[in-house]
Amino acid sequence: MFDYNFHWRPVMKSLPDLIDAALLTLQVAVLSMAIGIIIGLCLALIRLHMKGPLYWFATSWVEVARNTPALFQLFFFGFGLGAFGLHLSPYLIVLAGLTFNCAGYLAENFRGGFQAIPETQIRASRSLGMTAWQAYTRVVIPQVFRIVYHPVTNQMVWAVLMSSLGMLVGFRELSGETQFFASRTFRIFEYFAVTAVIYYVIVKIILGASRLMAARLFRY
Amino acid sequence: MIEIRDLHKYFGALHVLKGIDLEVQKGEVLSVIGASGSGKSTLLYCINGLEVIQQGSVAVDETDVHAKGTDINKLRQKLGMVFQQWNSFPHLTALENVALAPKIVKGKSRAEAREIAAKQLAHVGLGEKLDVYPSALSGGQQQRLAIARALAMEPEYMLFDEATSALDPELVGEVLDTMRLLAEEGMTMICVTHEMGFARDVSDRVAFFHQGVMEEIGPPEQIFGNAKSEHTRKFLANVR
Ligand SMILES: Nc1ncnc2c1ncn2[C@@H]1O[C@H](COP(=O)(O)OP(=O)(O)OP(=O)(O)O)[C@@H](O)[C@H]1O
Ligand SMILES: [Mg+2]
């Protein structure tokens, strides 16, 4: 009834390639998060403080990013732009798609973080003679940073896992590379099992590092 | 000296201060009393420029608070303010709370700022709590922390906006004692307060606000013993 024979040797032989691909996964996730954080911060501040076209632009971004499948967002940067003659490399498609998605989610986290700081904290800071900039950077942002710390960590994990969609636009990150080897050797189960373990280990390392850093950063 | 001339303040269509004229001399302690919504907090915000005004003027030591060319951040260093909600900075220890502004606003060195902070915390009776985060302090202690934080800028005037209203009754005393101490040391103070005992015992003058107008101002004996305005007498009869 169960006569599948496991063959792990091919997987082990391509392990170095898989590790390389895992590093590529990590790279694209970290980059999209770094850019996503900057854009997300801008989107959040625009939505909090501005009206008019910029507000609507930021709001649409957040709405689309959060309420449509991430895969479609990737496809937009791949086939969507492709239809208009703009062909991005698989790497750029994944980077742009992930960044778009992360920025949307992060923007909402940041907005909530800013809203959680009472206006009176700014008043108190200003009454001490601080400039608006000082009040923001020394009083508001450090508190927002703590509020969004765990959501940002989760988003980082999400970015790593979501980057596996890259294999559907021909990007040979960890999943794409696995798919490539699996279809060549037909050891599909073995390859994806090992890759799942690699994803698991990456995520655990991120969460562990984040916890360690939090313990050092937040003493209150 | 703080000089307020014909001050009008609107929030949209709402006329909150309707022509206030007031002078507060160096060394004076003025208490401001009045019903909720009569414009007491707004008056303080107009004095340190946290609110803009629509008519009239406010001058602190002859500097026009609301003039275009005024360096408001510099002027505010003269005007310490303590709020009803104590507003400690939760991410900083007591010492860091107090040391922050001297360091970044006045440009003191880290060591100097911490020294000033430690001194002011001892001054308000928190000398044992330097490295504690606000979350581990009681409301009364946080309010004294807020006082120390304002004092660390070496202000010449202190504005208190109902510094004790948000406190549990048993914690009111310690904050009033700290304010009393400041008054005895000669600090110029404007205290918006609901503590009539404090207003009577500590202040040189008491001002009664009613619907955006300063109805009456005078020594405590006059306001509490022999008020001229009907509104003042009514208000005091109700709070007693
Ligand atoms: N930022 C604001 N926007 C609009 N209206 C405001 C604002 N701040 C205060 N007001 C209104 O101005 C009036 C005076 O408010 P203010 O806070 O100065 O009163 P108060 O005398 O301090 O009262 P309380 O004893 O309740 O603190 C009130 O009617 C209040 O609703
Ligand atoms: Mg008030």
The largest inter-chain interface, given as chain pair and residues per side, is: A-B, 20 and 27 residues
Q: What is the overall pLDDT average of chain B?
A: 95
The computed structural class of chain A is mainly alpha
Number of helices of chain A: 9
- Average of the residue pLDDT scores of chain A: 94
The main pleated sheet of chain B reads as:
6 strands, mixed
| N-to-C series of helices and strands of chain A | HHHHHHHHH
Helix content of chain A: over 70%
Beta fraction of chain B: 25-35%
Heteromolecules bound: adenosine-5'-triphosphate, magnesium ion
Stretches of chain B where pLDDT falls below 50 for ≥5 residues? none
What string gives the helices and strands of chain B in order?
Answer: EEEHEEHEHHHEHEHEEHH
Number of distinct beta strands of chain B: 10
- Strand % of chain A is under 5%
Shape verdict of chain A: flat
Broad CATH class of chain A: Mainly Alpha
CATH fold descriptor of chain A: MetI-like fold
Looking at this protein, list some descriptive labels.
heterodimer, A: 220 residues, mainly alpha, MetI-like fold, flat, B: 240 residues, alpha/beta, 6-stranded mixed β-sheet, 4-stranded antiparallel β-sheet, 9 helices, 10 strands, globular, binds adenosine-5'-triphosphate, binds magnesium ion
Describe this protein's structure.
The complex is a heterodimer of chains A (220) and B (240). Chain A is mostly helical and 220 residues long. Chain A is built from nine helices and no strands. In chain A, helix 2 packs antiparallel against helix 8, helix 3 crosses helix 5 and helix 4 packs across helix 5. Chain A is flat and about 75 Å long. Chain A starts with 8 loop residues before the first helix and ends with a helix. In chain B, strands 6-7-8-3-9-10 form a six-stranded mixed beta sheet, sandwiched between helices. A four-stranded antiparallel beta sheet of chain B has the order 2-1-4-5, covered by helices on one side. The longest helix of chain B is centred in the last third of the chain and has 16 residues. The radius of gyration of chain B is 18 Å and the shape is globular. The complex binds adenosine-5'-triphosphate (ATP) and magnesium ion. The site of magnesium ion has 4 residues of chain B, from helix 1.
